[in-house]
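Deliverable D2.4 — example input (structure tokens):
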């Protein structure tokens, strides 16, 4: 669902947790819920499943797992276990497809050091696949959407454009080589970047997924009561993304994000239209968006480029709350 719809649904729903052990609950719309089980140990819970975005069943399983694990990494936690969620048109679709998806998913979970404990399957007209993941974190190391502070530098660890390129793939417009690239990007875990982040004590992070870079940046800005200033020319895009956008190839979800953000951001005249669209592109298994204290940014950037994402880029800055939560220049 789009960000606007989610806000509507949650209006009037009791969101304040009853227990003090809930460190992150419904009230803050963070990437995952966090429950304290010991003074120095918390469990982190998240779930994510969706319809196929690539043709290869094994790849799709791996993407679904990397995407589900991502919310655990965004919180600064380590994944432990997973449960599989399957909606499958049995009788109409070859069971081998599901077997391959599971293989791809389990392979990715193993890479992350997480164990698949079980799952649940439902017969459904439309295939859907994903995981509920449980992780562990030190409460003092948690990274939240509300952690952005004045002067922090914005860091994005993966280029944008998986939504646009998936649309191009569906339309039969994506060359094989670019398809392989994008699959590789979506199956790349955010693990190494997350480890660097927790090691260096970064306290503000989210992963860029369905609401696009700007939708998730907006969430961080409002949760932190600050304004995020994003330099559109510094935002990294995967190869071909801006060209496809200029030809009108992009997913419907992109327009939903754009409409949601209307009135919530200021866009300077210099910002290229294609980049503005691209920053609203819903991502699958996107990168981490971190707010990093200025004195830590150089060391962190070096560490991330060494062990995490070579494509990580500095894309802006956190400033004191302006009239709007987002300024794009
Ligand atoms: Co998330
Ligand atoms: Co999620």
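Example output (designed residues):
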């Amino acid at each position: 669902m789009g960000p606007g719809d989610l806000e509507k649904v949650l209006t009037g729903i009791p969101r304040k947790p009853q227990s003090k052990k809930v460190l992150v609950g419904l009230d803050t719309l963070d990437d995952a819920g966090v429950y304290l089980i010991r003074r120095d140990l918390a469990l982190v819970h998240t779930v994510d499943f969706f319809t196929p975005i690539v043709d290869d069943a094994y790849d799709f399983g791996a993407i679904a797992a990397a995407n589900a694990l991502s919310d655990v990494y965004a919180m600064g936690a380590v994944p432990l276990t997973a449960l599989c969620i399957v909606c499958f048109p049995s009788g109409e679709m070859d069971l081998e497809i599901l077997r391959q998806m599971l293989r791809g998913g389990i392979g990715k979970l193993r890479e992350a050091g997480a164990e698949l404990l079980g799952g649940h399957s439902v017969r459904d007209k439309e295939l859907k696949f994903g995981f509920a993941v449980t992780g562990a974190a030190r409460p003092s190391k948690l990274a939240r959407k509300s952690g952005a502070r004045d002067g922090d530098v914005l860091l994005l660890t993966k280029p944008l454009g998986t939504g646009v390129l998936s649309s191009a793939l569906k339309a039969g417009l994506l060359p094989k080589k670019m398809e392989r690239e994008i699959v590789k990007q979506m199956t790349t875990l955010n693990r190494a970047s997350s480890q660097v982040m927790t090691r260096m004590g970064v306290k503000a992070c989210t992963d860029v997924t369905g609401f696009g870079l700007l939708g998730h940046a907006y969430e961080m800005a409002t949760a932190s009561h600050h304004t995020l200033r994003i330099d559109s020319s510094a935002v990294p895009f995967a190869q071909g993304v801006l060209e496809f956008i200029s030809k009108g190839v992009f997913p419907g979800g992109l327009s939903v994000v754009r409409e949601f953000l209307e009135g919530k951001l200021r866009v300077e005249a210099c910002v290229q239209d294609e980049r503005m669209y691209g920053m609203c592109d819903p991502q699958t298994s996107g990168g981490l968006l971190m707010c990093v204290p200025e004195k830590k940014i150089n060391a962190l950037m070096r560490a991330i480029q060494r062990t995490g994402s070579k494509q990580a880029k500095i894309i802006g800055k956190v400033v004191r709350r302006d009239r709007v939560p987002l300024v794009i220049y």
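The first strand starts at residue 22 and ends at 24.
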